[in-house]
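Quick check before the chapter quiz. The format below is the same one you will see on the exam, so make sure you can read both the input and the output lines.
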Amino acid sequence: MSNAVNILKKPFIATVISVILGFLVSLFVLSAAGYDPFKSMAVMISSIFSRPKFITNVIIKSTPLILTGLSAAFAFRTGLFNIGAEGQYIIATVVSTLVGLVFNFHPVVQIPLVIISGVIAGALLGGFTGFLKAKFGIHEVITSIMLNWIALYTCNYAANLEAFHKPESNGTYPINKSGISMLLYDWKFSEQGRAFLKDNSLLNDIILKTDLNLNFLIAVAMAIIIWIIVYKTKIGFEMRAVGFNHHAAMNAGIRVNRNIVYSMLIAGALSGLAGALTISGTSNNAIQVLSVFENNGFNGLAVALIARSSAIGCIFAGLIFSGLIYAGQSLQFKIGVPSEIINIMIGVVVFFVALTKMFPAIVEKFFMRRSENVK
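Here is the expected output.
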């Protein structure tokens, strides 16, 4: 009994079991909705793994989810709830786009400028939330929700500015090519590039038909850096101490208010990096008028939950979540499964992950009753 309980207490094992249970219940939901669950699962698997293009797209789409997940997970670890990742992501896309349109330096300067400007924008929005909590005691959830809407309407205002609005569209012009960080961007669309890729189906599938970039590697590097900051540095220890008990931290001489602001600055910077990399590294390279939130930041909360606030876990959780979204789109296109059913499936997986801490207690009670019946 103790061995089974101890195994389930391990975060990785509990999370894997939760994801599997979530998928099984999702199959039941599909069946109840009138769709063949086994055919649906086959479509989901093939839509992710059957072609290099699909695998590459899942990895590319996981990048913003990993980074916004890191943003939420870092805030959780320091006792804060960064529900404002969505707004921080949006404001970063706005600033990165405007900077990418106004300036046109050499790519060596332009690309970092576009990305860093977005990071700063996200950090300032997150830091402002932290400042309001530290200075006036205003809960970060309240201010974050309000700032999310401010960011959305700021995006809509910027997208309609006469200087940047693209005629006959609902968004801005794409940023200058010097700010685009996609790999081999000019070459793959040239005659030489197309001729070379035509003779190699694998490279053609990965390079020409996707927004191939290095953003995923940047996200992985950030996950490692955040893990080091949280567990291997003095400031990380202080932030975690404030999150556990800010009264005890204050009595120990830790500057609580400063660490709250720093925590939200870092969380905002991570969400800002997600937005900046999206503008620089994907084919749209522009902002659009938003009628609703795109959920890149809100989905990051689910990623952090699946990862159980682990920085390294956010990498794998982001890939899982990206795969679910990507496969869900294929279900909708190939079988006609409504988007609502797909959202229910994703919600079920997240729900089961949220119950991981209950598994050891359930198993312990099961074995106790079994031992009592034997006696």
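If your answer matched, good. The CA atoms of residues 88 and 122 lie 4 Å apart.
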